[in-house]
Amino acid sequence: MPTHQPLLMNAPEGEKDRSKPDHFVVFTLDEQQYALPLSNVERIVRAVEITLLPKAPEIVLGVINVRGEIIPVVNIRKRFRLPEHEITLSDHLIIAQTSRLAVALLADRVGHVLDVPETEIISAKKILPAMDYVEGVVKLEDGLILIHDLEKFLSLEEERALERAMKGNIKKDK
Description:
Layout: E1 3-5, E2 23-29, E3 32-37, E4 41-46, E5 60-66, E6 69-74, H1 76-79, E7 92-97, E8 102-107, E9 109-115, E10 121-123, H2 124-127, E11 134-140, E12 143-148, H3 156-169
Parallel strand pairs: 3-12, 6-8
Antiparallel strand pairs: 1-9, 2-3, 2-9, 4-7, 5-6, 7-8, 10-11, 11-12
């Protein structure tokens, strides 16, 4: 049975248990719950102004500056074909790390950390075979949670276009 834990926002590294693959950060888009493995999440911050990034893929809203690091903001609403909405002060940015780059995901709300036994995660290939960027599904009493696979979230083409846009538009101090 999945259990809920309070979410540690901006907690120091030592306070998070990143060793278990069955901990997930749950967030909401239009009342549907989604999740990311806790091991991918670096921090969660309130939404801030997003700077447009010319020549970035459509899925990228722009970039933000987090403690001196320029991070692309990915529009997960577009990926899931959800209606766009204006960014509000109550929205959150989930700063997450893939094996190749850091990204920020815009969410309506970020709820809690969910502890799910691996045996209760249904492989997405069984029910959503065309959605490569969904790793699994968890059934709860109040609905389903789709677990994202950040490694597959951006296509190779989108990732390369983002890299070109970042190199072409972001000047680094030397």
